[in-house]
């Protein structure tokens, strides 16, 4: 079996690396972090023109019709370059959720994302910090002309930039929290108040509460079947988790490269510090966890794309492994740099910020290991 990229995938990777090396990086991230919006609008426009937003959207909706592997390649490169753009929230989160549902509004939203002009996000709810069905805190009730929403969805990524928001809402009570959930596409213009980003560790990927109280949407804002949205949501969140894991691998790779380069250049006692076992072993451990996570990510992407029986287990393993890699490499690469690595002027804390987002969003390693344990127990 060939585990390498084909020619088209390798060309995509090289093209993405060239563009992002030239247009992103720590300097661009730092600029975006200090800006009002936390994003690089010019880079986002370039990404739209290159068609990256539509790489995994079918040609019927204006995309390139490629697959999850190609999207993983792009996510890994955006992580490696710290690209300060709403690619994760729009493409890896909202785009994946839209792909799992149906409706005219959904088709229109996919076309807008594929065109590169629209930005979107998902309001998961996140009651008590949960990303499962029990964490959905938004409700929706029928009205004469459509639906009326209530509640607040906490910490939606880059909701302040979004043109539209995919909202997960409870439309019926049920003993099983996975029942009675529906999806709605809510234009940002329909909100009573614009989402205000809150301070977060990752200053170039901001989070915002989406207040949905009193928001009314027409009947066709409902995506898919009423009350039966959870299976599609679960599939989309698995895919989003793998894509976020790919970004974590990209961030870890960039940190590892910088740590190794510094260990070769920095001398102590007339020797490069990389010649000391305390440093060389740390670098070797970072390489091990990064490559392990990368292998899990691409296996999971393949399994999800092919509909393999163990696809959900592979996705959970990938997110757990990548969360571990993000945490370990973020900490150890700073330690390799010594005192200078802890300073505000140095670039290492910028990678640390993005690594922590990748580690924690959609659940940390322990949360995904609980899913692995439950899946293995159910299969035994």
Task: Give the rounded overall mean pLDDT.
Answer: 94
Please summarize the sheet with the most strands: 4 strands, mixed
Determine the strand fraction and express it as a percent band.
5-15%
Multimerization status: single chain
CATH C-level of the largest domain: Mainly Alpha
Q: What is the H/E order?
A: HHHHHHEEEEEEEEEEHEEHHHH
Euclidean distance between termini CA atoms: 29 Å
Helix/strand/pairing category = alpha+beta
Task: Offer a few descriptive terms.
three-stranded antiparallel sheet; Butyryl-CoA Dehydrogenase, subunit A, domain 3; 51% helix; 380 residues; 12 strands; single chain; 13% strand; Butyryl-CoA Dehydrogenase, subunit A, domain 2; Butyryl-Coa Dehydrogenase, subunit A, domain 1; alpha+beta; four-stranded mixed sheet; 3 domains
Give your account of this protein's structure.
The chain is of the alpha+beta class and 380 residues long. It is built from eleven helices and twelve strands. The protein is globular and about 80 Å long. The model has no long low-confidence stretch (mean pLDDT 94). Helix 7 runs antiparallel to helix 8 and helix 9 (311-337) runs antiparallel to helix 11 (365-379). It has three domains: 7-118, Butyryl-Coa Dehydrogenase, subunit A, domain 1 (Orthogonal Bundle); 121-228, Butyryl-CoA Dehydrogenase, subunit A, domain 2 (Beta Barrel), CATH 2.40.110; 231-379, Butyryl-CoA Dehydrogenase, subunit A, domain 3. The chain has a four-stranded mixed sheet, with helices on one face. Strands 2-3-9 form a three-stranded antiparallel sheet, with no helix packed on it.
């Amino acid at each position: 079996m060939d585990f390498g990229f084909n020619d088209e995938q390798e060309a995509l990777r090289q093209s993405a690396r060239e563009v992002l090396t030239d247009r992103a990086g720590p300097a661009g991230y730092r600029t975006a972090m200090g800006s009002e919006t936390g994003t690089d609008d010019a880079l986002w426009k370039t990404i739209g023109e290159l068609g990256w937003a539509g790489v995994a959207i079918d040609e019927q909706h204006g995309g390139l019709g490629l697959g999850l592997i190609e999207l993983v390649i792009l996510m890994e490169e955006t992580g490696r370059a710290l690209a300060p753009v709403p690619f994760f929230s729009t493409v890896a989160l909202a785009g994946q959720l839209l792909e799992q549902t149906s409706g005219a509004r959904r088709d229109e939203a996919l076309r807008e994302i594929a065109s590169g002009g629209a930005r979107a996000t998902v309001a998961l709810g996140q009651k008590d910090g949960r990303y499962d069905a029990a964490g959905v805190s938004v409700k929706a009730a029928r009205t004469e002309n459509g639906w009326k929403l209530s509640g607040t969805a906490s910490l939606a990524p880059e909701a302040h930039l979004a043109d539209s928001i995919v909202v997960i809402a409870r439309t019926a009570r049920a003993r099983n929290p996975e029942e009675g959930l529906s999806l709605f596409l809510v234009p940002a213009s329909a909100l009573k108040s614009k989402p205000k980003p809150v301070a977060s560790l990752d200053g170039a990927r901001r989070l915002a509460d989406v207040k949905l109280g009193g928001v009314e949407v027409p009947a066709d804002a409902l995506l898919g079947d009423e009350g039966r949205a959870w299976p599609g949501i679960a599939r989309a969140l698995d895919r989003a988790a793998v894509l976020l894991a790919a970004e974590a691998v990209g961030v870890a790779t960039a940190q590892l490269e910088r740590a190794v380069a510094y260990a070769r250049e920095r001398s102590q006692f007339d020797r490069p510090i990389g010649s000391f076992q305390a440093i060389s072993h740390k670098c070797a451990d970072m390489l091990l966890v990064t490559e392990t996570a990368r292998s899990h990510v691409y296996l999971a992407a393949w399994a999800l794309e092919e509909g393999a029986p163990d696809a959900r287990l592979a996705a959970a393993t990938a997110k757990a492994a990548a969360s571990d890699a993000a945490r370990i490499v973020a900490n150890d690469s700073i330690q390799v740099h010594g005192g200078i690595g802890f300073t505000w002027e140095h670039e290492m804390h910028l990678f640390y910020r993005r690594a922590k987002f990748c580690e924690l969003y959609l659940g940390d390693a322990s949360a995904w290991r609980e899913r692995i344990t439950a899946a293995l127990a159910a299969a035994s």
